[in-house]
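Justification of computing resources. Each target in the renewal requires a structure prediction run like the one illustrated here; the chain below, 344 residues long, is used simply to show the kind of job we budget for.
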Amino acid sequence: MTSSRTLVIAPNWVGDNVMALPVFEALAESGRSLSILARPHLESLFGLVSAVDEVLVRDSSDAAVIRTVKSRGFEEAIILPNSFRSAWIGFRARIPMRWGYRSDFRGPLLEPAVKRPAGVGHQVADYDVLLERLGAALPSGRPRLDLSEACLAAAEGVLGAAGLGSNPGVRKVGVFPGAEFGPSKRWPLDSFAELVRALLQRPQVEVVIVAGPGEEGWAETVQGSAGHDAPIIGPSLDLGQLAGVLAHLDVLVTNDSGPMHIAAATGTPCVALFGPTNPTRTAPLGERHRVLYTNRWCSPCFKKRCPLFHQRCLRDLGVDQVLVAVTEILGHDRPTRDADQPSS
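Resulting structure tokens:
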């Protein structure tokens, strides 16, 4: 079935939406005109996605959202989150076709309800069964964000205002010490600070500390311990602007996070630090990334706080290991931005 009035209810997490980018592209290629229902902080991200025709911001009560959705007369809803609440919106808005996976006791709210796959591979393929039922071709590539020249130029201005030059001989390394999920996903701040100090001692290397809204404290702790020589960028930027900044980096050292997936989708290689989560499921896709994972007996636990109170899964990742991974990436010439990079 194809429809000119298709609502897609988006996940809440930034990384989940980036990993779903091939799904949006496949749906658009099937002939659908996509309206995305998403949280306010995601609006600027979807503004970068050509497959999306409009964004309906989910910034009020469910009752108000349901009234707005109902008034639009959508013929079908594709419900990507697995929650009862997301299915309830489509049901109460009386959208005739409500596609989604059976989970969270929401089967009666869906029409049709599709059996949820096991989800043992990478999360980017989690919606393949749903796409097959929708008659859409399965995606063949990794998630991509194609940024406009205006977006890239604006980001270059942000970097310049922070004191970072545009000399192509200088390599820009970003570090992202945050992770919204919880403290168990965050590499220790003193390790980030030691890494920044070591990188700043290298010739032709600039370092920027990346932070999201509300993450200024972590970034300032790293900056202070490292000697205040690395600027902080990000807390005042929306996701679209952040994507532009990340696209200018030569490498991003990052916890398993939304910015990790955004950077990978712009073509920036990542040194991805995994502890309580599973890189088989959510590692950045592409050829040039380096995933560091200790694979302890207790990992992945998917807990927000370490239940054993030691967080060895991340604390056992040494700064020297991370430096080696950064060096490996910087040792390769970066491909041109429009070059096709096969997914891994």
